[in-house]
Amino acid sequence: NSNVHGARARASTSSSASASASGAAPSSGGHEETWIASEFDGEGSLGDDEEAGNGSLHVFENAEALAEAVCEVVEMCAFESIKARGAFTLVVPGGSVAKMLKGLTMPLAPGDAKMAKEQNIVTSKDIDWTKVHVFFANERVPARKNEKLARETFTNALGIPPANVHGLVSETEDAEVAAKEYEAHLLSLGPDILPPNEETGLPQFDLVLLGMGADAHIGSLYPGSKQTREGGCILGLSSSAKNSITMGVDLFNSSLSLALAVSGTDKASTVSRILQVDLLDGETAYDYPPLMLGAPWLSGPQWLLDADAVSELAF
Predict the structure, then answer these.
(1) Based on the number of CB atoms within 10 Å of its own CB, is 167 exposed (0-12), middle (13-18) or buried (19 or more)?
(2) N or C terminus of the chain: which is more exposed, having fewer CB within 10 Å?
(3) How far apart are the C-alpha atoms of 70 and 72, rounded to whole Å?
(4) Strand 138-141's sheet: what is its strand order?
(5) pLDDT per position in the chain (315 positions), as tens?
């Protein structure tokens, strides 16, 4: 684990939080911690250490502090990956979690900027964003909804080269074709950008960042769905309402680090069932896709939650 901690509040935020990369617990970084409830010790829903890696739970006072922590996880992983191998690969979702990453583009508050300089704390300015590659956990076909959101929210402002934002390969409306194209694109990037995971043979991302829906879906892996049960690399989903592609559980679990950011009271019941493995009669892990995340080599899953999201969780 790194000894370098992420910096705290951007100029637009009033509360503070931090979380380190590589599976480390959130660290104060020179400021008072908002609220850390607990950490998993390899038991419960995350399984034994040899089964589920280094799962941990970090709870923050509010959605603003959670967003700050998410940005710091990205900053730390980016800094360490670029230092170690000259590149950083990041998988992002859409929606509220993608919007949290706007914080990466915002200047630190004056006091925090001074602290960062004095204590050698990593900030967004310390990262060579031209060496960052962004991928998408799921995507609408052919709308590119999540890619557009990422470009508008953070990639353009950070100076990540447009070619390093890896969206859909073509304008096909066929989800299965789009999935095959995206998988082939990942495999074509080579080991300098996406080395294969030694255990699974699938591309190994440095950090997978996910959100979770109130129904427990991650990416476009929905409870009990065929795609959730399949595992796999890139999967196509077709319906009368929309077509999309999604990364499969096997690909998520091939990453080096994985974090889930969850906010809001609408997720509280689902969070409680997952983290306490309090399943209803007849339910399995397939009905709660986050329960399927974890591997011996994987740092995570790190659960980053606000107080609302854990309001039904018994500590």
Answers:
(1) middle
(2) C
(3) 5
(4) 138-141, 243-247, 234-238
(5) 332 334 444 443 323 333 333 343 344 333 223 333 333 333 333 233 223 345 899 999 999 999 999 999 999 999 999 999 999 999 999 999 999 999 999 988 888 888 888 888 898 999 999 999 999 999 999 999 999 999 999 999 999 999 999 999 999 999 999 999 999 999 999 999 999 999 999 999 999 999 999 999 999 999 999 999 988 999 999 988 899 999 999 999 999 999 999 999 999 999 999 998 888 889 999 999 999 999 988 877 999 999 999 999 876
Taking residue 220's Cβ as centre, other Cβ atoms within 10 Å add up to: 23
DSSP string, the chain: --S--B---BTT-SS-----STTPPP--TTS----------S-GGG--HHHH-S-EEEEESSHHHHHHHHHHHHHHHHHHHHHHHS-EEEEE-SHHHHHHGGGGGSPBPHHHHHHHHHTT-B-GGGS-GGGEEEEESEEEETT-HHHHHHIIIIIHHHT--GGGB---SS----HHHHHHHHHHHHHHT-TTTSPBPTTT-SB--SEEEE---TT--BTTB-TT-HHHHH--SEEEEE-SS-EEEEE-HHHHTTSSEEEEEE-SGGGHHHHHHHHTT-PPTT--GGGSGGGG---TT-EEEEEEEEGGGGTT---
Count of CB atoms within 10 A of residue 190's CB? 8
Q: Which two tokens stand for residue 1?
A: 């684990």
Beta partners for residue 56, in sequence order = 302
Six token digits for residue 179? 């999935």
